[in-house]
Write a structure and sequence with these properties.
Length: 245
């Protein structure tokens, strides 16, 4: 089964987390403060199984300018990006900032979701589509699928899944070299110890393997592995992975 990681990008309150929940049934906002404030503060995670069997791990990143460092951490291991732009607001500061970060990270594949279309009429929607097409001209998103979508009515859901499948089909396989995990979270679970999570960039790791942690060059043994919340014996390239060390 092919595994890829898609990252969201876009301005605060343009509907990234609502879109992820509508597509997957998984709420990526994990923290009480995120629920209270209605914004994503930490990285959120979900997964989507496409009709062809490809599993897409989704990294939902914060849109607020104060949390751009967290956005960079999440974007470091993604295969392609879903740029989310609200039809009622259009291009905003973090839209520009996130697209520039994706460019600097060398991301080459992606698509665009024009969200909150239930809040605009058809004339304004067409103007928003033209604005977005003009804005991404000359970037890696020029000519990328642009899908109008509503997380409220679910209009455009099938078209968005189809567009994700199309882009995923163009992403090349990851390197089969030595195991490399781009760590974006570290925490401790009582009774289990240290857990690191991230995207497996290359190779694979199994329970019982010894790994090295950079930059301190510490060695550790893999005591357990989870991929998308399920315990597995081995993690492979392209998967969102949690290692209990």
């Amino acid at each position: 089964m092919k595994s890829l990681v898609m990252g969201t990008a876009g301005h605060i309150d343009h509907g990234k987390s609502a879109l992820v929940k509508a597509l997957t049934g998984i709420d990526p906002d994990r923290l009480k403060e995120e629920k209270r404030r209605g914004i994503t503060i930490e990285l959120g995670f979900a997964h989507l199984d496409l009709p062809d069997g490809t599993r897409i791990g989704i990294v939902d990143v914060p849109g607020h300018e104060k949390f751009v460092r967290t956005m960079v951490a999440g974007a470091g291991g993604i295969d392609f990006v879903l740029l989310v732009i609200a039809a009622d607001e259009g291009i905003m500061p973090q839209t520009r900032e996130h697209l520039e970060i994706c460019r600097l990270l060398g991301i080459e594949h992606g698509l665009i979701a024009l969200t909150k279309i239930d809040l605009v009429d058809r004339e304004l929607l067409e103007l928003a589509k033209e604005e977005v097409a003009d804005y991404v001209r000359g970037s890696f998103l020029e000519g990328a699928p642009l899908v109008p979508f509503s997380a409220v009515t679910l209009e455009g859901k099938d078209e968005l899944i189809s567009a994700i499948s199309e882009v995923a089909g163009r992403v090349p396989d990851r390197s089969p070299g030595p195991f490399r995990l781009n760590v974006d979270r570290v925490f401790t679970i009582k009774g289990f110890g240290t857990v690191v999570t991230g995207t497996t960039l290359a190779g694979s790791a199994a329970v019982g393997d010894e790994v090295m942690i950079y930059p301190p060059r510490l060695t550790a043994k893999v005591r357990g592995i989870q991929v998308h919340g399920e315990s597995v014996e081995r993690a492979t390239a392209g998967q969102r992975t949690a290692l209990n060390l």
